[in-house]
Amino acid sequence: MPRRYVMCPPRHFAVDYAINPWMDPNAPVDPALALRQWGELRDTYRRLGHLVDEVEPQPGLPDMVFAANSGTVVDGRVLGSRFATRERAAEAEHFRRWFVENGFRDVTMPREVNEAEGDFAWTGRVLLAGTGFRTDPRAHAEAQEVLGVPVVSLKLLDPRYYHLDTALFVLSEATDDRAAHVAYYPEAFSPGSRRALERLFPDAVLADAADASCLGLNAVSDGRNVVLPVEAGALAEKVAAHGYEPVFVDISELRKAGGGPKCCTMEIRK
């Protein structure tokens, strides 16, 4: 099915600070290359038949390109974000304004820290909610109240996989006659969360350390096409074996800030 995505061009992209293990302010960054890679990702979505809206980037907010962290939308209801780090805090208001200016009427800004689709993954029936590094576990209950959907909490253990979307993605959402299908990296999760995932998704695609280390799980699936980093060849073979079509993109420059295809992509679900 055609999807609607929200993205933000990295016209002010830089790595000026370190708020996750992927970021090194002393390493060289090529902003022009980051912008080209982002443009190729956007154009890939459009070639696949999806609608992409763009939010205007703001000076002084180099991570605003990672639009997934600024809103969660289910059935037209919007839960905004509240960032854990001061460096990104101002992004939330710019995205709130975008929602209001684009006709969204049911917009709630959270009281608790939540980094939106960075830590929230909609499966069609339940919202998987990560915690451990960014999103406050109290935000999971807030998301349930605001969005009106059941929430399953999952604890992350490895600081390299500081958001849920670096360790898990939804391959296909649940329908009336089909369960949701996900891919994830088991070692990123606490033992209890791992057992919960095994119960919920017994046929999940399990990624290995190499898949995870290139942010291969920071992928976007429309239920058929799976857009993922070009380095994630082993993961691509696994999802292809389940009938999906891997679509490779190069996000090497954006990965220097700890992001990949999903980080750049917020989904609008109405």
TrEMBL record:
InterPro entries: DDAH-like (IPR033199). Keywords: Hydrolase, Transferase. The active site is at H163 (proton donor), C263 (nucleophile). The keyword Iron-sulfur does not apply. It comes from the Bacteria. GO terms for molecular function: amino acid binding; dimethylargininase activity; transferase activity. GO terms for biological process: arginine metabolic process; citrulline metabolic process; positive regulation of nitric oxide biosynthetic process. Belongs to the DDAH family. This is Amidinotransferase. It comes from Saccharomonospora piscinae. The lineage of its organism: Bacteria, Bacillati, Actinomycetota, Actinomycetes, Pseudonocardiales.
